[in-house]
Design brief:
This protein has 396 residues and is mainly α. The chain has 2 domains: 186 residues, Cytochrome Bc1 Complex, Chain D, domain 2, CATH 1.10.760; 176 residues, Orthogonal Bundle (Cytochrome Bc1 Complex, Chain D, domain 2), CATH 1.10.760.10. The protein is built from 15 helices and 5 strands. The strands form 2 sheets. A 3-stranded antiparallel sheet has the order 1-2-3. The chain has a two-stranded antiparallel sheet with strand order 4-5. Helix 11 crosses helix 12 and helix 11 crosses helix 15. It is globular, with a radius of gyration of 21 Å.
Amino acid sequence: MFFDPILSGNRNIACATCHHPEHGTGDALSLGIGEGGTGLGPDRRPGAGAARIIKRIPRNAPALWNLGAREVDVMFHDGRLSVSDIYDNGFDSPAQEWLPEGLNSILAAQALFPMTSQFEMAGDPKENQVAGAAYDRIDAVWPIIAKRVRIIPEYAEMFVGAFDDVTSPLDITITHVANALAAFEGTEFQSFDSPFDAFLAGDAAALTPDQKAGMDLFYGEAGCADCHSGPLLTDQKFHALMLPHFGPGKTRQWDPVVRDVGRMGASDRLEDAYRFRTPSLRNVALTAPYGHNGAYATLDGILRHHLDARSEYRNWQPQLAALPDVPWLASADFLPMQDGRERARLASRLDLEPVSLTDAEIAQVISFLNALTGTDSLRGRLGRPETVPSGLEVPE
C-alpha cells in the first residue's frame, strides 16, 4: 500500500511518491509537488492543464528513518500529532475525537493524514469522492479509502492472513490499513547499522580520524548534541532556527501575511512562534534538502546556518532552494521574503547562539554526519514492489 496510488483521491500519487527509498525516504525537493504532479524526486514536475498543481506542498517531506521507534512521541514539523490522552484515543491530532480507534502507534496515526490533504493525496473536491468527503469532516475520508482497499481481492486475502480480527473483507477498516502501513515503514526504514553505531559498539576503527574529530566537535564545541541527542539524534522538541521563509507557508485564516509560524500553528502559544521539531540525523547525508522548508540543499549550508543563523539568513538566496520551475507560482514563491515586518518577527525568534568553527572543523563535522549513514539497512527488508494489487503504476 505504501507504493500503491490507491490511497489517493485521484489514484495518481502514493506515499512513496514523496517518501521514496531512492531519495532517502524523502523527495529531494525543498517543497514537494503533490497531487497533480508527474514524475519522481528532482524530476517531478507540476503537471499541465486542469490537473496541474495550484500550490506547492508547504513544507519539506520529512525522512522516515526509525519513525517506528518507541521513543518517537511527536510527528510533523509543527508537532500537530503527539502521543496524548486529551481525546481519549491515545493522540492529540488534527482529527481530535474523530481519530479512529485501535491505532497501535503514532506512526499509524500519522499515515492517515496525507490521505485527507487536498494538495498531498486527496485532490480537489470537484475531482473525486475522497476530496469531497475531506471538506465534510476529516473522518469521512477514511471509510472510502478502506473500501477501496478491501474490494481488491489480493489485499483482502493479505489482511485476512495478517490480522486476527479480520476474517472477511468486510472486517477491514482504515485502522487495519494504517497499522499495516506503520508495520511496513517501521521495519523497512529502520537503520541502526552506521559506522557510528559500530563505533559505539566498540569498533574503534569504524570512524576515520576526521569523523572522530567531527564527533568530538558535534558533542562538544559545536553544540549540535544540545538538540540532536539520544539514539535517534533528536530531542523531539521545537526550536526557532530563523530559516528563510518561502513558498505557500502554513497560513492560518487570521494571519496578516503568507507565513509559517511553526509550532505555534498547532499549539496557539506565542512562545512557540517559528519553532519547528528537531529532526533525527540518522541517514542525514541522504535526506537533503534540509530544514522544515528545505532551505539548504547541502549539509555545509545548513550547518553554517546553525553556526551563524543571522548572517546566513541575511545572505540566503532563492537559488539555494531545490524548487522545480512552476511558472504560474513563481511570482509568489518568494513573496514572504519581501515582507519587512514578517522578516522582523521571524528574526526576533532565534534559539541558536553563534558558534565559531573553522572551515576545516566544519568539514570534520560533516564527515561525522556522513558516518551516520546506514549500511545494509539502506536496502530495506522488502524493497520496492514491481507491481501492486490495484494494478496502478508504482512510483519509480
